[in-house]
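Bench log. Compound arrived from synthesis this morning; before running ITC I wanted a structural hypothesis for how tryptophan sits in the protein. Inputs:
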Amino acid sequence: MFDENKKIILTGDRPTGRLHLGHYVGSLKRRVEMQNSGEFDDIYILIADDQALTDNADNPGKIRDNIVNVVLDYLSVGIDPSKTTICVQSALPALHALTFYYMNLVTTARLSRNPTVKAEIQMRGFADEGLPAGFFTYPVSQTADITAFNATIVPVGEDQLPMLEQAREIVEKFNRIYGKTLVLPKAVIPENEYQRRLPGVDGKAKMSKSLGNCIYLSDTAKAVKKQINGKMFTDPTHIRIEDPGHIEGNVVFTYLDAFCNDAHFAEFLPEYANLQEMKDHYCRGGLGDGTCKKFLINVLEETLVPIRTERAKWEADLDSVYDILAAGTAKAQETTNETLARVQQAMRINYFENRSIIGEWEKILKEQKL
Ligand code: TRP
């Protein structure tokens, strides 16, 4: 039953491709820590295939194909299906119904101001080609996701903060009009600013498949090495090893800021006690990019090796992966249907719960005749 003092987590991802290091430091790592803290009453992860369709209507095969990749990525980073419910959005019709009701609680002007959606519209060329109404309104559908699970905590990447802001506004409006029904969700983003916004290996703001600047959690060691040695942007003024180097905008150091700790130095680069010492040497001159990249590869591999091993295990047991997804989705159906029932009751559109409305009808008809 609904209890607003419960601590409930919901997060989600669009299944448009394999998950990468940006997803890992931006959100996945935190989800696993929270899952293992034992502090939460319920934890859900939503594979947002319907949301993914809002800008992939012409390519549903891509979404279908990537569901398995996303589940495998979850399981391999340590999402534990005995603690976290993994479910598929399209199998949760309550979310569609909630979206339709929430649509009336937000104006088109407000939706137009969402900075993340605005940036995505630019990026996808919708400004010229025409904007699908479904894409324009996906923050409303995301509000349905969040509220349907009664989520109080939503650990997401920084780009999702505007979605949470809109969700909170819709919740407040709903509760004002229909009485207190929905819980107010709160976003949780990484504390480390480099983890909040990991750029692509080429230094571009985001990792994106089409830019070819990603390191995927499922990449082989060879592929990781190739991205770093072949594509990772350093300091173009650092030509000879002796030249003084710059840290600002140097992607190798941005990644080290996001991933390395002092223990990595003891293990792989004992000349330095910590990242600051290494940076100081780089700035003075005398530390080569090759050494820095090699260190970064070692640091990343420490995270990636166990993920790869775990993925291989699950890849060999897709029957269990299917069962996990089916069981998670069945549980999510129960939770979301319960919320929909509560919402319809608050909105007084719960006509068929029992026959008590017949009494109301009789009264109305009698009063009309007076
Ligand atoms: N919009 C999110 C993203 O692109 C995915 C998502 C869908 C989500 N529904 C959600 C995230 C609910 C948190 C909560 O990453």
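What the model suggests: The two ends are 43 Å apart (CA to CA). Strands lie at 8-13, 42-47, 85-88, 153-155, 186-188.
ITC booked for Thursday regardless.
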